[in-house]
Amino acid sequence: MDSLVSPVLDIVTRLCVCSSKLIASIYSLEDNLQRLREQRDKLNRNRNDLWRRIEDAERGPRTRRTEEVEAWLTSAERMLSQTDVIMEQGNRQLQNRCLGSCCPKSMLSTYKIGKQIVNKLESTSRLIDASVGFYSNPGAIAVRSPRLRLLMPELLVENTVGLDPTVERVWRCIEDVYTRFIRVRGIGGVGKSTLLKKVSNEFHNRDHDFDFVIWAKPKVSRQEDYIEKVQDAIRKKLDISDAIWNECSSEEEKGAQIFSVLKDKKFVVMLDDVWERFDLLRLGIHLHINRNWSKVIYTTRSVDLCDAMGAAQETLEVQCLPQEQASTLFRMTVGENVLNSDQQLSELAEIIAARCGGLPLALLAVGRAMASRRSPGEWRHAMELLQSNPSEIEGMGSHVFPLLKFSYDSLNNTTAQDCFRYCSMFPKDCNIRIDELIDLWIGEGFLDGSKPRDQAEFIIGTLKLAYLLESDESKQYVRMHDIVHDMALWLARDQGKNKNKVLVTKGGTITFEELTKWEEANWISMLGSRSKAEIDHSPACNHLSTLLLRDTLLESFPHGFFDSMPALRVLDLSHNQALVELPANMGNVRTLQYLNLSSTGILELPATFTNLRNLRCLLLDYTTNLKRIPKEVISSLLLLQVYSKINGLFEATTTALGDDDEVAFLKVLESLNHINKIGITIYAAPSVNKILNSYTLRSCIRRLTLVECKGLITLCFTQELGNLESLQIFGCCLLKEFRLSECCKLGNLRQVCIGVCPLLLNLNFFAYAKNLESLTIFDCESLMAVTSKMVAFPGLKTISLTRLQNLEIICPSPRCFPSLSDIEVSQCSSLRQLPFDSEIANFLQKIRGETEWWDGLIWDDDTVKDACQLKFLSISCGPLQRKKDQASIGASDQEWTRQRKILAPEFFIDKVKGMTTIMAESALIVVKSWNDKIEAEGGVAFAELKIDNDLGSFAGDVISRACFEINYEEGEQIFMEIKALKDIMAKNIFLRWIPGFRPSLQQNDSFFGQGILGSSGEQWARQRKILAPEFFSEKVKGMTKLMVESALMVVKSWNDKIDNESGVTELKIDDYMRSFSGDVISRACFGSNYEEGEQIFMKIRDQKSIMAKTIFLQWIPGIRHLPIKSNREMWRLEKEFRALMLKVIKERKETITPNSDKDLLQIILESAESSDLGQEAKNRFILDNCKNLYLAGFDTTAISATWTLMLLALYPEWQDKVRAEVLQICAGELPDSDMLRKMKILTMVIYESLRLYSPGSIVPREAVKDLEFGGMQVPKGVNVWIMMVTLHQDPNLWGPDVDKFNPERFSNGVSGACKLPQAYMPFGVGPHTCLGQHFAIAELKILLTILLSNFRFTLSPKYRHSPIMNLIIEPQYGVDLFVRKL
């Protein structure tokens, strides 16, 4: 029975199970379908997310997806497709139900569909589970294929010294993904090729991701073959077969073939010794398409090429070796065994190494030549040869000079080559005055253009760009590297084949043998020997074109000396004081074009000078014995271009002509058609007027000296004197003032000397001499200020002030003379302050003056005083008259306490009670005003009022009546008088920064603390000295890349928003801007990012909000100690900020290593640790400065960016203009510092935005002495608040469109936008100007550049315009924009 029942039960059980499944499949169809839909969406999301991860991974070099992930993606695609079909069938089954949608019409088909859905649920679940492994193991997504073989073998490199730091700099550029083009430049032979070899070898020693490393230095005889040769070198390294290469019929096809190989690879191409500009596309290299951050590195010895290529993002200059390193390289090359063989050799080696000028090529060549010589006599001979004829040293003529000659050959201009060779006439280490050099070139006949001086300037620039000439700091002189000079002399001597063609010798008795050499010479130079030159007979110099006998104590010439020089064009006899008579036959040298007789003792010019019809340059400076120059002589010199006769200031006026004769002489000069350069001394007022009224004379004057011009009361410069370089005025006893019209320009004026002008009142005409370099003033007893104008003289280096009895001020601000290096003050008893801040004090080299005067100076800042004390040199002089008032300027802590003791009782409660009547009366005035306005509206119960001015009137009336016994209308001038601003700016050195809005904010527990924003005096100067260098322009340039990275994070965030909202999104941009600025300041200064520092930012921001609401409560005595709500909140936030910041500091200290890159936080930490402060004081120093930097660098930049974007959204035409400029300059690349400098329209927009919405609103200052502003007396100790908002929107300063957004007003800079440029102060004014202003402007430019390159903005209707003062001016409700992708 059991045997029968068991099978039956089994069958029944199985049927029940099947039935239950069948029923479940049918009646759970809708639920299963919904589950499948959810599973399908989840699978699709996983697939999309995995795709993005794969795309990101595959952007890396040699990276591809794994087979496993590829199989999963295929399965997922198939599963999604199948699932869609089944879901469609399931939906149809649900729609075909009957009986009130309860029963399926076909049980069988419904069962089949339901079963498929259940199966797909299981399959999709398995696929989803499989995808989890890809997230947990990134290596399962993509793998990196093995690197292709390097195409450069390790190169042999000769001995090097000092190159390793430069190699490291290049490698850092290679590792930087944003740097694609790297150029290495320098003089020939300095080691550029060696550097490139060492860099190439580094690819064998360091880890990197490059597929190809290609070196190309083809040997070409013609530049036209360069591209072809480089292409051939590259294709061989890429293993492109000859068969494929030979099928390419053109340069373009070959470039395309190279591009097809490199386009998907990450590579480095190194091009050595590039000479001419070419497009990399011609080679087949297209870095803008390549996404693998490939690099091109090229070396060149042409600065011009560096600028012309225009693509390089990093430029590294290889310099000659300093003496110590040069000596080391030379000794390594010679060998210590040779140098140790004789004691003298080591000393001689130092001298020879020095004469190689630090050029590695010369050091190696000479070192190898001396490696086998052990005799001191041989070494001394080599030393002499290196000085006189270096081409005879082995290797110099055969290797060094030919290699350097490539720079000479590349000039491609025979005139430039002639001019370069001519420079060999000057001694080594000689600074050659550019003006003098041009005159010599003109005289030699090298310059044949219609404007020879312009042509000469261009040639000098060309020689500098080719490293054949070097410029000095003043840009008035050039010099040649010693080895380049040797090469120039070698070239001038036909590459050493004709040694007598150019003779550069010392003075002394010239022997018969030496005079015989003259007969072969073209150029002869004897300069500056100060040895007596004696010439005993006349050689036949038929080829001689230049004879320079300068400063040789020459007394006379033998008979007929100049008769034997038929080709002579240049003659320089200057600085031979003993030469008093010129031979008559000098006038027979009709080819003469240049004659320099300056500083000689000649008494007259021979009558035969009228024969010098070809003379172009005549120089007669300081010829004190030459009383008269016949007009007939000058009028006969029809080709004369340069004339100069400058007399010394103290020469007797007997050298002067009469008034009429002087004017007549000027008329002769004026009549010369080719004259273009004049230097002259004038003794009569009519002559001055003649010059100023003559266009020819005015435009030709380069040096002008006025001596005892009687009757000269006012010197009126009404026209342009654009070429005037030197102005000297002496003994003009009636001269009172200078007048200059707006069209008068003195752009080339570099030297000014004014003396013995007792009535002269001011020198404000300096405002038109922006390039002034040297200023000397003496014996001008009425002069009270050198300049009272706020104008910068960026090039002024030296000032000498002597016997100026009433001089009280040099200039109103340290910014006037930012480059001042040397100042001398003698017998200026009224001068009690020097216009120096800490930066100027550190830059200064010398301060000379009497000790008594120095001891009586008044200083605002002891740090500045200490820095200047180190530069002070005492000079001897008679005793100075001290001023009676020797009181120190500047309120110290004791002085502040004394003032508070005087003022505080007036604000005690009892006193305040007595003022309530005044307050009530002032309030009733407001009530009356409002009642009048309501009645004017027709008697309604309300009126629309703008209350700001009324409340300002109330406050002004109360303070005026309570403190000064005047009403608001009288006192309004003190608060609102704009014209007083000029005086405020002029006397800014007497206004001291009020730290953190005194009084109570100065305390240690205040918001600002004692950081850079809350301190003054010595403490402020010390902190600024620590922090300021980190925000100098060069430092800011190095931070642009991290700014770009932070801006790209904003772009990514906005892109994600837009992608999720169908191409356009509405954003409140404020937090994005704060995130950007917070990330930048965190990374740049504190080595973290915004996310890590977000809590710190929020604490500071909350403190700032409380501070803004309660700022005026701070003047209530004792208020800061009371536990009111705002104080409790401030204390809590300060405690939390302190804890967070100390945690950051602790973590930083634990991670600091000797090799750590220093950021600002580490510098602050090191400064605190090196001080003698206690631990609590150190912590406070660190915390206060960190908070100040977070505050200054966070909200201000973010809010400025927010306002600017709002304005660009409101004015789309300006948005389009800026975007067009950005796209043109960046050309698809990320912005760098060079690009930012070119963005003029963007700069204008930022300046206008900062004008309308300055981050700050008030600049607080305190008078440190009794002052007068615009006729108002301001006693010492009075606070002066400069209202930036008022100044920036005053129509008297900015014009009638002051309320409009018009960036065009800044097209000519701030000076062109505002009648008083000093009124524009978005970053403050005076010594306390924001030290991070360059940093902030760079942030704004980069952020706006990147956002404008990616998006278009319009204002959202949600935006409510409501600027609010919250310590800084910010939008109360934020800024809402619609943002679209371009």
Automatic annotation (TrEMBL):
Residues 26-53 form a coiled coil. GO terms for cellular component: membrane. It is found in: Membrane. GO terms for biological process: defense response. Residues 560-831 form the Disease resistance R13L4/SHOC-2-like LRR domain. It comes from Corchorus capsularis (Jute). Residues 166-337 form the NB-ARC domain. Keywords: Coiled coil, Heme, Iron, Membrane, Metal-binding, Monooxygenase, Oxidoreductase, Plant defense, Repeat, Transmembrane, Transmembrane helix. GO terms for molecular function: ADP binding; heme binding; iron ion binding; monooxygenase activity; oxidoreductase activity, acting on paired donors, with incorporation or reduction of molecular oxygen. It comes from the Eukaryota. Transmembrane segments: none annotated. Its cofactor is heme. The keyword RNA-binding does not apply. This is Disease resistance protein. Belongs to the cytochrome P450 family. It is a single-pass membrane protein. Residues 425-488 form the Disease resistance protein winged helix domain.
